[in-house]
Design goal:
CATH topology of the largest domain: D-Maltodextrin-Binding Protein, domain 2
Mean pLDDT: 96
Distance between the termini: 39 Å
Helix content: 25-40%
Shape: globular
Largest sheet: 6 strands, mixed
Oligomer: single chain
CATH class of the largest domain: Alpha Beta
Low-confidence stretches: none
Length: 249
């Protein structure tokens, strides 16, 4: 039995649909926020996870399942820095507790693109309500759908990364913490591919839950669910830049 942790957000629904209708009957699946996916894989509570790419260097053994990811080649719509003031007036940035990659990405952007040096604060449940004045906040996932358009300044982190590098940004990919059989990887990849053929079905099922957010645009256009050579290059570049960041207190 292969233990799998997948992200519970809308962006993962096509992959989950693929797993649901595939012939993979030798798996146990849990749905978690990204930071919990990471913790489970790091602590060997699961064998395979859709994990934040920032966690890959922390694994004693990391095997990326090729071909599939959560990414964007431009605005992603669901990973943003929200602020009441312009970038130059931000004094503090609150870091989403659900994130491991985006909270690193925003630090790279602050240093290399925006030229700001805010205080960084790790945030907890409900922190979205405290984004005000000169305190901005990074928020990821489905919570952004109702926040978009409610702040005078919003910065899409995938879009900002592309401004900086010209590359897409990959937020998460499928990684195992041990070698998995070629047979399992083949069947798992088939399930992922099957899921990508069911996006229209997923849109039909999920759209009413997120009104007025445009689920069809998000799943079909904003997200990049295939990991290609440009995506692999983006991961390598991001991990290299991450190494240069000082540790947070």
């Amino acid at each position: 039995m292969i233990r799998i942790s997948a992200v519970s957000y809308l962006n993962t629904k096509p992959f989950l649909r693929g797993l649901e209708i595939s012939d993979l009957n030798d798996i146990s699946l849990s749905l978690d926020i990204p930071s919990e996916c990471a913790r489970k894989l790091l602590e060997n509570e699961v064998d395979l996870g859709l994990i934040p790419v920032a966690v890959i260097p922390l694994l004693k053994e990391a095997h990326i399942i090729p071909g599939y990811c959560i990414g964007a080649d431009g605005p992603v719509e669901s990973v943003k820095l929200y602020s009441q003031v312009p970038l130059s007036e931000i004094k503090t940035i609150l870091l989403d507790y659900q994130s491991r990659t985006s909270v690193t990405l925003v630090r790279i952007l602050a240093s290399e693109l925006w030229n700001i040096s805010p205080e960084w604060k790790k945030a907890g449940i409900g922190f979205e309500e405290t984004i005000s004045g000169s305190s901005a906040g990074v928020v990821i996932g489905d919570r952004t759908f109702t926040m978009n358009g409610t702040f005078p300044y919003e910065f899409d982190l995938a879009e900002e990364w592309k401004k900086l590098t010209g590359l897409p940004f990959i937020f998460a990919c499928w990684v195992s913490n041990k070698s998995l059989s070629a047979d399992f990887i083949s069947r798992f990849s088939d399930a992922m591919e099957l899921g990508l053929t069911k996006i229209t079905e997923v849109v039909s099922k999920e759209s009413q839950k997120y009104v007025p957010f445009d689920v069809e645009k998000y799943l079909s256009k904003s997200l990049n669910l295939r990991l290609d050579k440009r995506g692999e290059a983006a991961i390598a570049l991001f991990l290299g830049k991450m190494k240069e960041l000082p540790s947070l207190p």
